[in-house]
Amino acid sequence: MRTNASLHGLSMLVVLVHSSVLSCRIGTEGECLVAPFVPGHNLVGEGFDVVTQQRKADVIDVKTYLSPSKTCKLCTNPLQNDALQKLPSSVKNMASYLTPYKLHVLSESHQFGLDFLKSPEFGKLDMGATRSKAYKFASQRIKEDRYTFSIHSVTCNTYGFILSTPPPLSFKFKKRLDLLPSHYNNSTKNEYRKLVNTYGTHYFRKVNLGGRLRRLISSRSCLSSMNGLTSSEIKTCLSMGVAVGLGKMKISSVPKSCIRVLKNQDVATNFSSGLYQHFTEVSGGNGWLGEFSIFQNDSMGYMNWLKSLKKYPDVVSYSLRPLYELVPNELQKAAVKDAIEQYLKDNAVKKSLKEPHCEGKTPNVASNCCPQHASWGTLTVSIVQGWKLYGDVFGKTDGYAKMYYGSIQRRTKVIESNNPQWNAEFNLGKVSKCYHHRLAEKQLTSIIVALLPSTGS
């Protein structure tokens, strides 16, 4: 499994700087003892949970660096003034991305649903990232309204590691396997679930380290449409805004049509939450949360974050292998495989619905099922009943009610009663709040009626 999936609606600006395998040599025991590890050396040996998208405990031994002959591999690090640094014995190869960085600026647009955050593995079910923070943010949005999602990310690579084959297991992982039952069944499933919770579903076979800023933006699809904006235009404007905020573009270069998008202004309905909301994730570096303005140059925190990546890298892309492949005992291997598959199924969700399509000539509804104009809806008025209508001296009142809305008039039937129950409902069709008509009733023979207007889209 790889992180770089083929995604719909992809546009990318890539600034490439070549990478290089480090200049390495065999070091003596004394040299190995004093040399520090290469930054991020331990990340390649970690487990990974594809459901939560979180790194887990070490499954590979990344602490041992001396060979049986008391030597180690020492490499010069060009990102740290050619300092001599050691590699774990389990690392087969290492690359350094030479100055300044290997930098990717990426924007992705996804029209509907949550498929961009998940990896399909079980037919109609998806489980990848279904418990991640980004997935929770996106799933909450689609419960509220129709949304289009776009991902705007910056990736900076500093180092890369590849594990040897087969990689040596960490001491704690081997000890855990020694205590694990040989079979997976109802009586042992809790022990296997604890193993998955601790070590994940997969492990890193190859990693690229550095830093990644990822901003997930959710745009209200129908609200954007009513503001005369397409999903593509929203994404393009937001991509420019990210470039402005990170100091890669001047605000004067942004088209006027994008300015109100960057200001998050809804002019069609004055919706208080604006056209979009965002969720930000930052991997690597030290001390920056990834928040910045998209309407002005706000790049100081970003630039300081870039500088810190040489010393504090994190995993930004990777190649995964299933965790069960590391289990030496064949019975346990099959059991771990079953436990992981069950864990994935337990956390699967049904695939997202497709983009809706509305056919016919429904008033004020476009083909994408969005309203064409704001503040339009169907107005239905219910005249329910009257009370104590003593308008007739010699008998019961012959009562009826009239209602007015602009030039529209409606009247109930006549009921001979001092407490008539008309239960009349009048559909006034499509109306606009912008007209501000007063809904009124006319009293006849001292009749007081209860008017219960209701609106709906």
Automatic annotation (TrEMBL):
UniProt entry keywords in alphabetical sequence: Cytolysis, Disulfide bond, Membrane, Secreted, Signal
Pfam (any one): MACPF
Biological process according to GO: defense response to virus; immunological synapse formation; killing of cells of another organism; T cell mediated cytotoxicity
Domain called MACPF: residue spans: 28-360
Top-rank taxon, per record: Eukaryota
Keyword Signal found: yes
DNA repair in keyword set: no
Subcellular location: Membrane; Secreted
UniProt GO MF annotations: wide pore channel activity
Xref: InterPro entries: C2_dom, C2_domain_sf, MACPF, MACPF_CS, Perforin-1_pore-forming
SUPFAM superfamilies noted in UniProt: C2 domain (Calcium/lipid-binding domain, CaLB)
GO cellular component: extracellular region; membrane
Signal peptide: 1-19
Family to which this protein belongs: Belongs to the complement C6/C7/C8/C9 family.
Protein's recorded name: MACPF domain-containing protein
Source species: Poecilia reticulata (Guppy)
